[in-house]
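Exercise 7. Given the components listed, write out the predicted structure of the assembled complex. Treat all entries as one system.
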Amino acid sequence: MTDVVIAGIGQTPVGEHWDISLRELAFNAIEAAVQDSGGLRPQALFVANMLASSLSNQAHLGALVADFAGLSGIEAATIEAAGASGGAALRQAYLTVSAGAADVVLVAGVEKMTDKIGSEVEAAIASAIDSDFEAVQGLTSTTQAAMLMRRYMHEFNAPRQAFAGFAVTAHANGANNPNAMFQKAISSEIYQRAGVVSDPLNMFDVAPNADGAAALVVCRTDLLPPAYPHPLVRISGSSIVTDTLAIHDRSDPLNLDAARLSVERACRQAGIVPEDVDLFELHDAYSIYAALSLEAAGFAERGLGWQLAQDGAIGLQGSIPVATAGGLKARGNPGGASGAYQVVEAVLQLRGQAGANQVANARRALVQCLGGPAASAATHVLETLG
Amino acid sequence: MTDVVIAGIGQTPVGEHWDISLRELAFNAIEAAVQDSGGLRPQALFVANMLASSLSNQAHLGALVADFAGLSGIEAATIEAAGASGGAALRQAYLTVSAGAADVVLVAGVEKMTDKIGSEVEAAIASAIDSDFEAVQGLTSTTQAAMLMRRYMHEFNAPRQAFAGFAVTAHANGANNPNAMFQKAISSEIYQRAGVVSDPLNMFDVAPNADGAAALVVCRTDLLPPAYPHPLVRISGSSIVTDTLAIHDRSDPLNLDAARLSVERACRQAGIVPEDVDLFELHDAYSIYAALSLEAAGFAERGLGWQLAQDGAIGLQGSIPVATAGGLKARGNPGGASGAYQVVEAVLQLRGQAGANQVANARRALVQCLGGPAASAATHVLETLG
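Answer.
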């Protein structure tokens, strides 16, 4: 296959954007990404979105966003895999360029979640889990994560406080990200005193629902202008893997098989092992998923992922930095757009443009987003070229 | 690129399936398609769906359908482009195989529309048009089509009765399709007497909302077993093109630019002109779109598409047969699944398996599905090999 690179990145601040429409959010990110790419002209657009049909009565975002971005006439479609939509859309862009069907492809992750009341939003998010067998019983993504965390604490004798390190790390990094929803560090004590959301999850175990958009320009290396201003970032591994949608169908709910398999496949394609990466943008929609993702990727033994948070290994100077721009927890979690934000943040690291959050000599990143209870896992390996 | 073929097809009857869940519908079509392919093992799945988030509180159909079909662990995602979802999903499957990322890819179009009351369904379908600027005013897809038809009648002095031929042809063909929702021929007089739905659209100008699922197995030619039982059907052209989402942004609402461009691109890739095809599975969600699609594809001059319906040219023995299995009108229109049904029906024609509806010597088909007011148009050229 041709070398496929991420030539442009763009993002809007994450937060409550009651004054900006869905299409404007997407456009702002696209405009920034196209400009960042040196003005490449996209021939196709994949929109990553999960909730616009249910929260904004708007499907058909491919045509909508292409139109509003002044790109009407190009190819477009929406790619959805719940919380893994951003990674799934990047993969389709990667395949489209690899197949030679387009030279320059745009990915736009966009989500608008804060215009509706919380209960409506929580119900819409629950469409990511099994509606007929889980949500129908009253289960939501949050209560499901709570049960997973309870089970984890029971199985592995992990205290609730063991999860503090994930939120503390995310908030420390978010403090330096001008696009983060929460730009404020927290202490372990603040974590400890936080109100319970769904026992044992407290407020800092749960990433906030948010509005936001992030965009990526994906293209063939040989199309970049000679004066291209950034270090090149190549997609060297790409994978999506599914697991059972309902957790009750898994032999062990604490094994994220799809996350594990998608890391294995993406790394195999890239010719690396996970230990070769300099950072891991993981899907910390709930802190329990951060712990389980670290284990699934092989950075910790089963039941010991939380220790990486406790001993500083996931910090910017640690052995496997995660959530380097705040993660879903502090940057905010705009649903289907989160996976695109993760890629933007990894590219900033690999270009050496991550500012105060720069991981020293970052040359290779693992980026993973999860849908529902990790029933979809999209993983990419990104590397600097040359 | 490698030759990519549609090796397996499957479909469920179209209708009101209150007793069959979304996942079971999809599974039934998938099981049939895999069996039809001679037992090929899919490595990836693209689900075409538009309405499950809003009507069934279920997103994340990639993981759900893969899981229920016993394919958990494969790659999966949902592809949505409103009514063009089926064609968009086929295109992603085609690109995935072309890129060498998978050898065998499944497309499953599935929609379940009849469990909810009509007004809810109509509102959900209106998510295919511009929510902020059209639907917010009370416009629906149906009333929009009515305005287009009114404009067409005015511009081109076409009588309302001019559209009868589309419904009569569709129902004549649907009468011989055991999977069609309406297996009953109608006369021009019955069309004339039908109640008005949204002036000037009458009941027979509007395809019925329906439940259904259709599936396709897409793979590389060289992977087929020597004993593969069907004539080979190759994808020789594939294209998706967008137009403005809101009709008021178009210089002429009676020109379906996306439909025209996508036919041009798909035909150019296939090395043919539209006149070379033996049938045209078009998107007759409303009869006005059948007329406009025939014009956009070049089979009729502007304003004269309706004449092809009147003089029998679109019949099975005509110069450009359309809706050969009943079209959306008589087979039924299960939203995001309709595009997959169209492909199933075209493949049956090209294999010579279309029974009483067989178009003589059908070797090449144009298949097109439209999203919203043809703001997305997905077009494929399919050909028999050898």
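Discussion: Chain A touches chain B through 67 residues (CB under 8 Å). Chain A has a mean pLDDT of 97.
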